[in-house]
């Protein structure tokens, strides 16, 4: 009896056409993922032009996989093409920012309410992220503060234990991350107590309503300065 072919399992059942061997992550996929993270963490500001040759050199890959990664993000509206066909980080319009804020408030509030089931160690880790943000405020390292703010919010959403919600929230952060790079344009906000502290306290006390309210306060306070920035910009 002949042995089963590579395309057949031991039962002899023919695998469907869509089944393909698992291969190592492609260069294009790696560039795509790293760019996506950079967008989420506010490391790429609105209107930044991403030229193919410099980007390829920076990632240490050829033009073809770099182009594939950029155009994939364009298709997802995370990046855009300007009038000259160059890839740029898009600038959110005011109505887009308002819509994203409303959806984030709902979804991140739901995640925070569910996160009251977190362990003490998980809440401690969240508190440690906020402590680093406070240190960045003191040293005026605002770029790192924006990065850590993203980490705080996404970590909170992970603690909610809702994977589908978490993936949707990440998509929102890909879109709004660049504008959040302007969060500290006017310096450190005078927020005492900081809404992050209220979130952490609510989780420790198992108060889902307080956790949801603190998230709403955080998103609304941060958004007020960003709205002023968008209104003052040429595209706003």
Key words describing this protein structure:
about 240 residues, mainly alpha, Arc Repressor Mutant, subunit A, Four Helix Bundle (Hemerythrin (Met), subunit A), two-stranded antiparallel sheet, 9 helices
Task: Note down, in words, how this protein is organized.
The chain has a two-stranded antiparallel sheet. The chain starts with 26 loop residues before the first helix and ends with a helix. The chain folds into two domains: 62 residues, Orthogonal Bundle (Arc Repressor Mutant, subunit A); 139 residues, Up-down Bundle (Four Helix Bundle (Hemerythrin (Met), subunit A)). The chain is mainly α and 236 residues long. The protein is globular, with a radius of gyration of 21 Å. The N terminus is likely disordered.
Q: In which range does the helix fraction lie? A: 55-70%
Please tell me the overall pLDDT: 89
End-to-end distance:
72 Å
Counted beta strands:
2
Tally of individual helices:
9
- The CATH topology of the largest domain, please? Four Helix Bundle (Hemerythrin (Met), subunit A)
Strand content: under 5%
Q: CATH homologous superfamily name of the largest domain?
A: GntR ligand-binding domain-like
Q: Write the element-wise H/E pattern from the N-terminal end onward.
A: HHHEEHHHHHH
Main sheet makeup:
2 strands, antiparallel
**Helix/strand-derived class?**
mainly alpha
CATH architecture verdict of the largest domain? Up-down Bundle
- The CATH C-level name of the largest domain is Mainly Alpha
- Which strand order spans the largest sheet, edge to edge or round the barrel? 1-2
């Amino acid at each position: 009896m002949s042995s089963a072919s590579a395309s057949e399992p031991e039962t002899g059942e023919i695998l469907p056409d869509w089944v393909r061997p698992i291969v190592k992550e492609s260069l294009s996929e790696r560039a795509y993922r790293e760019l996506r993270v950079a967008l989420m963490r506010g490391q790429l500001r609105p209107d930044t032009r991403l030229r193919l040759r410099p980007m390829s050199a920076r990632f240490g890959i050829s033009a073809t996989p770099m182009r594939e990664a950029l155009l994939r993000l364009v298709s997802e509206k995370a990046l855009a093409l300007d009038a000259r066909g160059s890839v740029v980080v898009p600038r959110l319009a005011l109505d887009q920012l308002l819509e994203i804020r409303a959806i984030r408030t709902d979804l991140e509030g739901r995640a925070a309410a569910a996160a009251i089931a977190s362990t003490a160690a998980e809440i401690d880790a969240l508190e440690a992220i906020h402590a680093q943000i406070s240190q960045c405020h003191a040293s005026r390292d605002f770029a790192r503060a924006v990065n850590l703010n993203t980490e705080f919010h996404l970590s909170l959403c992970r603690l909610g234990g809702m994977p589908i919600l978490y993936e949707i929230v990440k998509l929102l952060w890909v879109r709004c991350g660049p504008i959040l790079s302007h969060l500290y344009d006017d310096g450190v906000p005078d927020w005492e107590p900081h809404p992050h502290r209220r979130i952490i306290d609510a989780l420790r006390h198992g108060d889902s309503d307080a956790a949801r309210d603190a998230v709403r306060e955080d998103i609304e306070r941060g958004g007020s300065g960003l709205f002023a920035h968008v209104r003052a910009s040429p595209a706003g």
